[in-house]
Amino acid sequence: MTATEVVTQTAHDAQRDQRTGRMLPTAVAVGGLWLAMALSSVFAPDLISSDQDHVPIMAITIWIWGAVATGFVLFGAAFPTRDRMARWGLPVAVLGIWGAVALVSIFAPTIVAGSDGTIVPVAGLFSPAAGAIATGYACLAAAWSAVSERRL
Fold first, then answer.
1. Which string of DSSP letters, residue by residue, matches 102-136?
2. Please, are residues 46 and 118 in contact by the beta-carbon 8 Å criterion?
3. Crossing angle for the helix pair 57-77 and 89-107, to the nearest 10 degrees
């Protein structure tokens, strides 16, 4: 080696694919999750009190559950799998879960309570919590399968 030569280290193709290959599925999962939350916040029915006050209850409460689910997705992505096809299992599960949350919160019927006509979107209140719990289980399963794959 002479003084004018520069030695650069190159990563193997598999190692480079491992680094960049797990960020795209994670970004798709987080982006889809927040898109479903935004759609739920905008289009879900409001809580309407007896005084006809409209409270966008989904827009107020869904962000907390979305932040929890985002943390779960980032946890699940911290354990990469070697199989390229298996990396897309978690984003598909997350998109399915939060797509269902968006559909339930937007289209589920509301409850009219009392004679004064208070309208309560009960399914819209509980579906984000159920979505966050289901996302946690999916991410735990993805992390467990990646760790158990390494042990073999």
1. HHHHHHSPPEEETTTTEEE-HHHHHHHHHHHHHHH
2. no
3. 170
Whether the Cβ atoms of residue 86 and residue 145 lie closer than 8 Å to each other: yes
Tens of pLDDT, residue by residue over 128-144, are 999 999 999 999 998 88
Residue count of the chain, please give it.
Answer: 152
pTM of the model: 0.82
> Are residues 95 and 32 in contact, defined by beta-carbon separation less than 8 angstroms?
yes
Helix (H, G, I), strand (E, B) or coil at 22: coil
Report helix, strand or coil for 91.
helix
Task: Identify which of 130, 126, 136, 114 has the alpha carbon closest to the alpha carbon of residue 44.
Answer: 126
